[in-house]
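Sequence in, structure out. Go.
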Amino acid sequence: MNIHPLCVLAVLVAGCASLPARDGAVETRLAEALERRGLGADALSVIGNLLAHGSPPPPMAPAAVLEALARPLAALDVAGQFERAVPASLRALERLPAPGSFEAALRTYIRELAQAQRLLREDAPGFDDGPLLRELAEGLPSAARLLEAGRGSERASRLFVDATARFASRARKVPLEPRAFDSPIGKVVIGTTGSDRHGPEAALIVDPGGDDLYERRPARAGAVSVIVDLDGNDQYRGSDVAVRALSAIVDLAGDDRYAMDGAGLGAAIAGASLLIDFSGNDTYVAKFFAQGAAAAGFGALVDLDGDDRYRVEAWGQGFAIAGATGLLWDRRGSDRYLAAGVPDPFERGAGMSGTGLSGAQGAGFGARGRLGGGTGILRDDAGDDVYQAQMFAQGIGYYYGLGLLWDLDGADRYEAYRYAQGNAAHQAVGVLRDERGDDRYAADWYAQGMGLDMAVGVLADGRGSDSFAARGLSQGTATANGFGLLVASNEPNRFSMGTETPSWGRAEWLRGLPSVGALLHGAAAQFTLAGKPVAAPAGNPPVAVQPAAPMHCPSPDPGEALLCRARDAPDLEGFWSEMKALLLAEPQTPLAGWVALALATRPPADAEAIARLLARRESCNVRALALRAWPTLAAANDAIRSSCFRLQAAAAAAFSRLGAPLPPDAALPSFLRALPPQEDTN
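Output:
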């Protein structure tokens, strides 16, 4: 994930801009800026076009991610994203009517739980969950384990969530007779008003009061595990992750402590899990995969009131992978969210504290090349909140994931290291949206509305006098055909950058196509660069192309090793005879693009024949590289009429290189007509 320093293409929008209730004004201003730069509104289609002509999405990629990649400004519609991801029963939790009889509601709930359990066992295949649970104890499960687990039952999850939300909204403190009895879901225990200690054996526990202690263990293999506690300052320990199972905690009152030594607190894999806490100043502590986390299922933690504290080591606080939805929703109170981190295998920021991988606070993650991400949401409705994390946090999307942090009100503080605060990398979407309040944002690199590699990163702050601080490659920037947008209010906001690395709305071209970076700010905004006040950045920087990655020889990568061979081959014609045989024998060889790159560096005598072989590939990217390597008018005339932007860019460059005019009937995007052809680096 090493990215070269960001240089020069940009869209920087100065002047008076605010974040309205509807975002049409943002769209209009951005379109105007794109036109001024010669890019045109179709520059917003670059990501979608590249993906449409590239490899298909990985398994379990969410539809919402694909939509936002095709239409980047759709990422601003966080209310729509929230409504699509979160069941209506949870959104209406406090508005459902109370029942006439708690006992009748309990009987109905048990019957609905039994039905949900039956659907889960019918729809979700069994698997050996032991290896997955062992991996979960050490961090995030591998893509192989998650693919083995498969999807849970959507029918079972929906019924379970709806039934639990209804019962939670109708539960109230009532006198209950202590007892235990068998039911279709297993053992049911009714506790006492004293301080009880409950083990994990019962399928359903209803406790009327007292300061209780609950020992939890993972729910597995189609089990149901539910606690409904009506009153008291309670403690919850152990691990209550649901693995192809259904799990819930509903706590109506009290200052409770949820301290898990394993995964849990609204966490599910191929199942569903809920934690609903109605009131009290609560503490939530867990290690990995917790506090609204899900993979191929649904996990949610909903806290309705109180000044709460949340702490997770990594992978939580609204985290999702494998097409799942993970939600942490806190409705009232001044809260503090802390995500630590696990060691970074790439050692970004080595030697510095706070540089671990958090994967938290609205994070949607996928496993590159193997498994799509999920929809991870952290929503906070009110209060002066503090968000602290390390890397990959606070509205972060990674590889076909959607991460959303949505704060509706309060003077909030956001602190993170890298890849944070409305950042996305590798075909993903990350959004941080704060509606109002005097807020402070602090990060290091790749943050605050930054899109990297065909990804959409957005930070949108509505009303308030805010400060934004970062060190570089942040605040409305983009690389590798990404989209980065920072929208601030009209008020006198402050933007500071710790280094002179280009930021503030700048972006680079790659693959012969633009990236789009935009910073929308008010006229009274103040800017500081490397500790010194500066004027608002100019909105008309020159175009620059992201440089190619340096070649390392020898290389363990098969493609780069091929380039090394081409560079160093003493028998060049012998090397190309081998490549020609490869292209004839393996029409779909994954090395075709590397062969095209080699053709550009050391072409053989029959280079045109090699280029014709490459032009037969289905891949638009390979054909574009071949045309760049060895342009001919015949190939350019064919390519200019393609619907693939990258191939059209290669054709435009070929016409220019060959000294020929563009065909007048060529339907090109604005940026290829208005701007000279750019290099194609990959």
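Check: The first strand starts at residue 179 and ends at 183. Residues 558-674 form one domain.
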